[in-house]
Each structure stands twice: as C-alpha cells, then as structure tokens.
Design goal:
8 strands; 260 residues; Muramoyl-pentapeptide Carboxypeptidase, domain 2
C-alpha cells in the first residue's frame, strides 16, 4: 500500500456522497475483471459512479502535495502506479500536478447541470445542448472519472501543452507514461475515434480501466443513462453516448475495446 504523506474539467469536492439508488435501478450484478482491480469485482454502482470514494475500501486519498485540490481519490493500484510515474518525472525535472481524479455521479451531475444552465444555451434544443456539452464533459453515469482510473494533469487547456514547460511535460508523458500503465485516451481523432475532442491532460491507467470498460459494456446500457436524474438524460440514446463517447477511445496498438 502506498504510504500517504507529504497533485471534462472541474475541481473536486472535498467529500463526495453517493446518490441514493434503488434496487430496481441497479441490481447487484457483478463481473469478475482482471486481478488488477482493488476488490476483485466491479459493481454496477462503481461503474456508474454511484458511491463515495472516501468510503470505498479500494480507494485512497491523493497526497496533498501531488494535487491542487482537497480530498480527491484514486483506486489504490492506480495511485501506486502514479506514485512510480511521479518519482520518475521528478527525477527528470518534470512537475506533474493532478488537477482532477475520481468524480462520482453526484459530482459529475453538478458539472453537467452548471453547463446545461449556461445562458448561451437559451433557446437551444435539448439534443443540440447535450451534444455541445459532450465536446469535453461526460454525462453523469458515463464518465471514466467515475472509475478512479483516470486523471487530469497540469492544465485543462490543450494549448498549454504545446509550448514551454507544457510542451516538455507533454513530451515526457507521451514518451514515458505508458511505462507505468497510463495512456492518453482522447487524441486528436486522427486515429478515427469518435466522441470527445482532444484532451492532452487526460490520462488513464489501462490495467484497470480496460477491464472496467469491458465490465461497463457488459453491465450498462443506454437505459441506465436515459432514466438517470440529470437534465437531457433522454438524449443519451439518440446521441449514441455509449458507442460514440464511452467507447470513443484511442488505445495503444494491439489493444481495443471491441468486446461489448
């Protein structure tokens, strides 16, 4: 276990409480993933972000010195892998700062609703409004940040990573993050992927997020989103959120997400 001591696109809450879920909404279905998972199984509630990471046995708080947010969490094995990557980056003179990590359903809903109610969308149809928000922000229940496997690093501006310190950090991550299991899943779409636009800041720990995506594709369907309590949820089907966004990924050569 990592000794904790002396770092899309929003700050984290200090405490994330789980949204109450009824048994008929989310039956206790389980799927056994790889041994890399913290608890050995993934539940529907974990996949949909319906839990509090501060109370989940498989999660640990990120050390304050590694982030500019208070009280944010990652899965234990992800935090341990990040610790190794950060040590290597420090030795290379690269400063990594975690800007965002685990976000549960309730917190992601807060991001979504704030954007949904922006004055700029006044008069827009729900489909068009949701599609525009999906440029960078996931629907609640469809975010990889629910899983505790994905992190946002240093800046939420793509341009920041193209010059000066940002370019050095991005070059280091591109060259070395894979050695520690992390991968940039949202590229510039030159690979032909669909979904969210380029996010140079978003890095995913594939040894766990890969099995979790497989579990998500087995256990979750569009109805889980369309019936969820957030504005525009009913557009999830017509926008093909599961196919185009949840599975709209750039993965390393030899890996794919075709097992649905």
């Amino acid at each position: 276990m990592l000794a904790l001591g002396a770092f899309c696109t929003c700050s984290e809450p200090q405490v994330q409480s789980a949204l109450p879920v009824s048994a008929d909404q989310h039956p206790a279905s389980l799927l056994s993933p790889s041994a890399s998972d913290s608890l050995g199984v993934f539940t529907r509630d974990e996949l949909l972000g319906q839990f509090n990471p501060a109370e989940h046995a498989g999660f640990e708080r990120i050390p304050d010195a590694w982030t500019d947010k208070d009280g944010i969490y990652l899965r234990r094995e992800v935090l341990e892998a990040y610790s190794r990557m950060k040590s290597a980056a420090d030795q290379a003179g690269i400063e990594l700062i975690i800007r965002s990590a685990t976000r549960n359903f309730e917190y992601q809903r807060g991001i979504w609703e704030r954007k949904w109610n922006r004055p700029q969308y006044m008069g827009w149809q729900d489909f068009d409004k949701a599609r525009d928000i999906l440029t960078y922000s996931a629907m609640p229940g469809a975010s990889r940040h629910h899983w505790g496997t994905d992190i946002d690093l240093n800046s939420f501006e793509n341009s920041w990573f193209t010059s000066s310190e940002g370019a050095q950090i991005y070059a280091w991550l591109t060259a070395h993050a894979g050695e520690f299991g992390f991968h940039q899943v949202y590229d510039d779409k030159s690979t032909g992927r669909t979904g969210y636009e380029l996010e140079r800041w978003h890095w995913s720990y594939l040894p766990t997020s890969g099995p979790m995506l497989n579990a998500y594709n087995h256990l979750i369907d569009t109805r889980d989103l369309a019936r969820a309590p957030f504005s525009g949820a009913e557009t999830a089907d017509s926008l093909r959120v599961l196919a185009e966004f949840v599975n709209g990924l750039a993965l390393p050569e030899g890996q794919d997400n075709t097992e649905r």
